């Protein structure tokens, strides 16, 4: 049996997830008859656009499954044949699911359980949901993809490989509605979120299709071919329900309490454990916010991992800030958000040595400056309750609690020579730069 790394970590943890059976079955074909039920399917008899033909004789129902065979043979001046069925039902905003496998691993077949748009009794492309698509060959696995047109009119697609062994039975499903992203499922567990960031899929029905033929991209004379097997196709009113899960979002930099100046790099990792544990798994975007006194002074949205934000702090006033990383994912019920935050201090100043506050305030005076051993601090108002002294690496090297305003003598003889920042912390924050020497 071919071994493959399962890319969908949700499959690995599904035993821990309360995934309930979907409800509201409105249409199905269980393929338990002797032949294709013509009220459900149209068997296609035409060229497939390559050196291959969709041949009705390659469609078979036996042992309770539908089989679409691929063959190397001369037929209608083509060298290869496959099979295709189009459904007569055209659902809109429903959950579509089929149980599918390829009879043998590594077969060179292009097998797809998919849909295109259906408008005014005619096909329309895009959109296209590739609910199960295998462009077969050695080491290949099924993928799930969404083809769509961007707001600028460009045709593009999003999606990912499942990492599954295509010769094993799995169910593959998709759900979409008028307001949210396209949700793909494997074995009734959410496997991929196709969030376009620009609105919901087009408001149209879907034409269901089952297709398999020799893979035009890598077939060769004598290559392994195998049947695409379908156990059933079902249409439900609603998708499988999965218990909500908390997102994970963690700052990697800066750290809580860091002092920042100049150009800085901010990074957070985020993922939805239901869909994976790698950075970005199941995350539609991360919105960073820089907050001062409860006011968002700057923000940026990152749509793709790694979630980095590079800013220059000189554009902001010195002071204490909160940086938030708001990670967003989606479920059938709407948007899920999780936030991490750090408190930082931004200090930017000219290289001059100050005795008054860096911002020019004279509510406290610091002297002498430069200082050798005893630094005197004269507080004229009662705004502060803590003194902190930082070295140029942003490390706190001295702290002292303040009980009242007035004069304080600070013994800093133990500090190495250099430039330091003194922070008065309280209802307001003030900063002083001084030079220590011997």
Quick summary:
With 438 residues, the chain is an all-beta fold. The chain contains one helix and 35 strands.
Topology:
Layout: H1 9-12, E1 19-20, E2 25-29, E3 41-43, E4 46-47, E5 52-54, E6 59-62, E7 65-68, E8 71-75, E9 78-87, E10 95-102, E11 109-119, E12 122-135, E13 143-149, E14 155-161, E15 170-175, E16 182-186, E17 189-194, E18 205-214, E19 228-236, E20 241-242, E21 248-253, E22 259-260, E23 263-271, E24 285-292, E25 295-302, E26 307-312, E27 319-331, E28 334-346, E29 364-367, E30 374-379, E31 384-390, E32 396-401, E33 406-411, E34 418-426, E35 430-436
Parallel strand pairs: 5-9, 22-28
Antiparallel strand pairs: 1-20, 2-19, 3-9, 4-5, 6-7, 7-19, 8-9, 9-18, 10-15, 10-19, 11-12, 11-18, 12-13, 13-14, 15-16, 16-17, 21-23, 23-26, 24-25, 24-27, 27-28, 29-30, 30-33, 31-32, 31-34, 34-35
Describe this structure in words.
The protein has 438 residues and is mostly beta strands. The protein folds into 3 domains: 9-242, Sandwich (Jelly Rolls), CATH 2.60.120.200; 248-346, Immunoglobulin-like; 364-436, Sandwich (Immunoglobulin-like), CATH 2.60.40.3080. It is 1% helix and 53% strand. The protein has 1 helix and 35 strands. Strands 3, 4, 5, 8, 9, 11, 12, 13, 14 and 18 form a 10-stranded mixed sheet that branches. Strands 2, 6, 7, 10, 15, 16, 17 and 19 form an 8-stranded antiparallel sheet that branches. Strand 8 and strand 9 (78-87) form a beta hairpin. The longest helix is centred in the first third of the chain and has 4 residues, at 9-12. It is elongated and about 100 Å long. The model is unreliable at 1-21 and 350-354 (pLDDT under 50).
């Amino acid at each position: 049996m071919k071994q493959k790394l399962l890319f969908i970590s949700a499959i690995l943890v599904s035993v821990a997830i309360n995934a309930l059976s979907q409800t509201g079955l409105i249409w199905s074909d269980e393929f338990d008859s002797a032949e294709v039920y013509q009220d459900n399917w149209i068997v296609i008899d035409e060229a497939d656009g390559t050196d291959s033909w969709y041949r009705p004789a390659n469609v078979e129902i036996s042992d309770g499954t539908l089989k679409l065979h691929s063959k190397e043979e001369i037929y209608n001046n083509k060298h290869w044949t496959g099979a295709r069925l189009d459904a007569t039902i055209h659902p809109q905003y429903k959950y579509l699911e089929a149980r599918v496998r390829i009879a043998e691993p590594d077969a060179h077949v292009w097998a797809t359980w998919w849909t295109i748009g259906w408008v005014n009794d005619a096909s329309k492309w895009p959109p296209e949901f590739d609910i199960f698509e295998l462009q077969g060959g050695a080491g290949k696995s099924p993928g799930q993809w969404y083809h769509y047109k961007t707001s600028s009119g460009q045709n593009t697609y999003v999606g990912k490989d499942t990492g599954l062994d295509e010769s094993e039975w799995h169910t593959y499903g998709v759900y979409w509605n008028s307001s949210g992203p396209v949700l793909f499922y494997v074995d009734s567990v959410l496997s991929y979120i196709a969030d376009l960031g620009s609105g919901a899929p087009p408001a149209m029905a879907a034409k269901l299709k089952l297709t398999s033929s020799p893979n035009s991209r890598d077939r060769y004379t004598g290559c392994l071919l195998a049947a695409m097997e379908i156990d059933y196709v079902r249409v439900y009113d609603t998708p499988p329900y999965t218990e909500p899960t908390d997102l994970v979002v963690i700052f990697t930099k800066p750290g809580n309490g860091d002092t920042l100046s100049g150009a800085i790099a901010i990074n957070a990792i985020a993922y939805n454990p239901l869909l994976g544990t790698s950075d970005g798994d199941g995350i539609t975007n991360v919105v960073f916010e820089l907050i001062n006194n409860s006011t968002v002074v700057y923000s940026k949205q990152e749509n793709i991992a790694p979630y980095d934000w590079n800013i220059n702090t000189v554009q902001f006033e010195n002071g204490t800030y909160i940086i938030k990383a708001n990670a967003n994912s989606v479920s059938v019920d709407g948007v899920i958000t999780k936030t991490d935050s750090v408190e930082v201090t931004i200090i930017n100043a000219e290289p001059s040595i100050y005795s008054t506050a860096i911002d020019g305030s004279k509510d406290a005076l610091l002297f002498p400056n430069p200082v050798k051993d005893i630094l005197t601090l004269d507080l004229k108002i009662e705004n502060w309750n803590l003194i902190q002294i930082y070295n140029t690496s942003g490390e706190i090297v001295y702290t002292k609690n303040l009980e009242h305003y007035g004069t304080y003598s600070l013994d800093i003889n133990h500090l190495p020579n250099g430039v330091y920042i003194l922070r008065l912390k309280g209802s307001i924050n003030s900063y002083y730069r001084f030079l220590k020497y011997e």
